[in-house]
Each structure stands twice: as structure tokens, then as C-alpha cells.
Amino acid sequence: MPLLVHSIDLDFPIKTIWKWINSNFHCLTVIPGYIHHEVISDQQFVLSVQAKFGMWKRNVKVHSHIIQRNEPNYLQFDFASESNHIQGKGELRAKQLQPKRTRVTLSLEFSGQGAVGQIMNTLLKNFDPTQEITPELADAISKNIKEVG
Q1: Measuring CA to CA, how many Å separate 14 from each of 2, 32, 71, 86?
Q2: I want to staple 88 with a disulfide (CB 3.0 to 4.6 A). Which of 12, 24, 110, 114 is the partner?
Q3: Distance between CA 127 and CA 22 in Å, rounded?
Q4: What pLDDT band is residue 54 in, cutting at 50, 70 and 90?
Q5: Strand 101-112 and strand 56-70: pairing?
Q6: What is the tally of structural domains in the chain?
Q7: How far apart are CA 92 and CA 7, in angstroms?
Q8: Which InterPro entries match (predicted)?
Q9: How far apart are CA 16 and CA 32, in angstroms?
Q10: Per-residue pLDDT tens for 103-116?
Q11: Of 2 and 11, the one with more pLDDT
Q12: In a 10 Å sphere around its CB, with 0-12 CB exposed, 13-18 middle and 19+ buried, how is residue 55 labelled?
């Protein structure tokens, strides 16, 4: 099961980060490939993204359920694609480094089933988020936090 872990330092207080995470799941809009999301409850949402694995692109609907929420620094969730070809769990941790600087760490553990899953598992083993998404994601998060306020 591939595991992706990535940290990003943001120039916001931890409480501002937590408010952004919990503000109708606005944090989902910065996910690479984001199409839209639907809030089912304060514990559940459905996320539509365009997944890219090498040359392969596909729109995927992911159902997610929040398992644990400890304000202001921890969120645990699980997720599965609508077809159940992709399943996993994740954690979001926030650590205040300075009064106006917070490190956010996202850990995602995936498993894929069938032909799609085999391709995904192989490609994710070699995926380096620091090379692929960090600069764009940091900018998108900062802009989104300012918009949500």
C-alpha cells in the first residue's frame, strides 16, 4: 500500500489553518485535479478530482469520512472511490512553529484494486510530492486561506 507523506510550512497561525480546514471543506479546493466537492455532513463529503497517473487521466469520485478531529492540530479520515478501486486512509497534522507559522503534514495511504489499482500502486511508489506539487500547492493554500478569511 503506497504511503505519501508531505509537509508544508504556511505563514498563518494554527487557529487560522484549523478554521480553514473546517470551513465547509474549502481546503479541498486546492487539491491538484480538483473538480468539485459535496458536503454530506460535518463528518462526510464527496470529492470529484481528475486523477493523473502518468499518461492515464480519469475523473474519480471519492467518498470520505472523518474518523477523528482534535482541534487545532489533528484530523483523521478514510476514503474510497465510488467504484472501490481506490481505498485508503489519511491524517492531517498541524504544528505551530511560531505564532504566525504552522507546519501542516498530510499523510495518505492508498490501495488500488484491479488493473487501475496496479497502475496506481506502481506510479505512486515513485511519486515525490516535493518535486511535483509543493510550490503550486503552497501558493494555492495561502490564497485560499486569505479568501476564506
Answers
A1: 29, 23, 10, 31
A2: 110
A3: 28
A4: low
A5: unpaired
A6: 1
A7: 10
A8: START-like_dom_sf
A9: 22
A10: 999 888 888 787 76
A11: 11
A12: exposed
CA distance readout (Å), 47 to 36, 78, 81, 119, 145: 6, 12, 9, 21, 19
Distance CA 45, CA 24 (A): 10
Single-letter code of the amino acid located at 44 = Q
Assess whether pLDDT exceeds 90 at residue 64: yes
**Residue 127, domain extent:** 3-148
* Encoded amino acid at 73, one letter: N
pTM over 0.90: no
What pLDDT does 84 receive? 73
Q: Is the pLDDT of residue 3 over 70?
A: yes
* 135 pLDDT higher than 70: no
Helical packing angle, 14-22 and 134-148, nearest 10°: 80
Identity at 122, one-letter amino acid code: T
- Which CATH number goes with the domain that contains 48? 3.30.530.20
What is the spatial distance between Cα 52 and Cα 58, in angstroms, rounded to a whole number? 7
β-bridge mates for residue 109, sequence order: 3, 89
What are the start-end ranges of the H helices in the chain? 14-22, 114-125, 129-132, 134-148
